[in-house]
Structures are given as C-alpha cells and as structure tokens.
Specification:
two-stranded antiparallel sheet
Amino acid sequence: MVVAVAIVPGDTLLSTPSPLPSQSSAQAPKIPPDQLDSLVAPIALYPDPLLAQTLAASTYPLELIRLQQWLLKNPGLKDQALADAVAKQPWDPSIQALAGLPDVVKRLADDIPWTTDLGNAFLAQQGDVMDAVQRMREKAQDNGNLKSGEQQRVETKVIENKGIATVRPQTGLAAQREATRLLTVRLVPGNSLAVKAAIWQAIGPATDG
C-alpha cells in the first residue's frame, strides 16, 4: 500500500508488516480530520521508526496487553537476552520490536480504547492518519516544540505543484496529495542510548496537544 506522507528515515518510512484487519472498521464512517488530529497527537512527534512501529503495533491491541504482561513477568531480561526471548513469542514483529521500550508499551497497553481506535483508523484511513501526523508536526514546529537537536534532526520538505510522497510497506496503489509543507523527523545515527534519548525527547512535546 502507498501512503502520501513525508515522515521518513532516509527517503521512505520504515517498512512495517501489513497487519491483518482484526477489527471490523471497513464499513465505519470516516473519522474527520480534527478527531484524527487528537487521536495521533500523543505519538505524532515520535521519531519515524518508532512512529511506524507504534502505528503497526496499535492494530494488535490484544498482543500489546500480552507483551506488557510478559514484560512484567520477565523483568530480568535485557538487551540481547530480551530480543532472543521475545522473538520466540507468537506475536507480530511490530509488537516484538517494542519489547525494549517498556514505557511505550505501557502507554499503548494502559489505554486500550485509544490504542484500538488508533489501530482501526490506521487500517481504514492510513493516508488520513499520516496527514494528521503532518498537521500535528507543523503545529508543534510553529509552537517551537519540534526542533533539531543533538539526538534528532527535523527536516522540512516542500513538494511543488502536485507532488507524491509515498510509503511502500509491501504493495499497493499510488496516492497523490496536493502540494503542502511536509515535515520529517529523523534520528541522527548513534548508539542505542542516543536513540532512546531522542525517542524520549520527542515523546515529551507530543503529549502537550
């Protein structure tokens, strides 16, 4: 599937597995833009790889609960041991990838109604969800809450006339959007501690609305 968006590590959004539509949202009325803005606000400023994983993981709310319970039962697992152990669990890769970020797991699992709504919206209106992310990033940048720093780089891309910014997780149809200001959050390459620091730097302003 192809989604018009400009949140990209490099030139494309991190590829995520296409989730199975476990929720019956296909026939639901479209969520209006203002409600989508509120829905994505808590995660809109996440760095791109984390945003991609979070959106994919939100389509598996029951597995998020199981991951949270599993983490609570295995507090001694760290680093490679944690990665090896979680890889043996029968969960989607997007869920497994969050095992090293227990605070993010808690945020998603502790508010399952919101997480489920987010996942349903992502399944049914991916392009609209990503447009909402862009609107929230523009708002945050205009308010001074989205800036480049030592751990994180914010890029602004402008597409003249009618441009196409695409995300290609697997296969899909091209999507086209009118020219607009598109914001990209990228992490400066560094060690795992630097990446985590950048994640938490982004999480803070995202919850300010």
